[in-house]
């Protein structure tokens, strides 16, 4: 599934761009807790995206080989999100909880934007 790897690489580049923007915001503004929450949530979001991509490739390989298929790691991704929220709740003076949650959702926004831009490119 090389096309899945290409899509993931595109998403990773977008997320790294956002993370660099968040680091600049953390370093140069007075909203450090908000940007630190975005950094934490987006990092966990990228990890979850990497995990689901890797397990999807394994899933496809197992189906092609006719083997039994394990889960796609829903529990691992939920545990990562729960970890981020717990850390934000434990250190509210350093991490803004709503920013962590928005950061966790960032990958889905990136996926939707990438999908629409790829559809526009394919129609032109």
Average of per-residue pLDDT values: 93
Could you say how many structural domains there are in total?
A: 1
* H/E topology pattern: HHHH
Largest sheet: none
Poorly predicted sequence stretches spanning 5 or more consecutive residues? none
Helix content: over 70%
Query: What's the Cα radius of gyration?
Result: 17 Å
What is the end-to-end distance?
25 Å
Structural class: mainly alpha
Shape: flat
Number of helices: 4
List how many beta strands DSSP finds.
0
Work out the strand percent: under 5%
Protein name: ATP synthase subunit I
Organism: Rossellomorea oryzaecorticis
Main location: membrane
Keywords: Cell membrane, Membrane, Transmembrane, Transmembrane helix
Descriptive report:
Helix content is 85%, strand content 0%. It is an all-alpha fold and 124 residues long. It has one domain. The two termini are 25 Å apart.
List descriptors.
124 residues, 4 helices, membrane, transmembrane helix, mainly alpha, cell membrane
Short description:
The chain has helices at 2-28, 32-65, 74-90, 97-123. With 124 residues, it is an all-alpha fold.
Blueprint of the fold:
Elements: H1 2-28, H2 32-65, H3 74-90, H4 97-123
Helix pairs in contact: 1-2, 1-4, 2-3, 2-4, 3-4
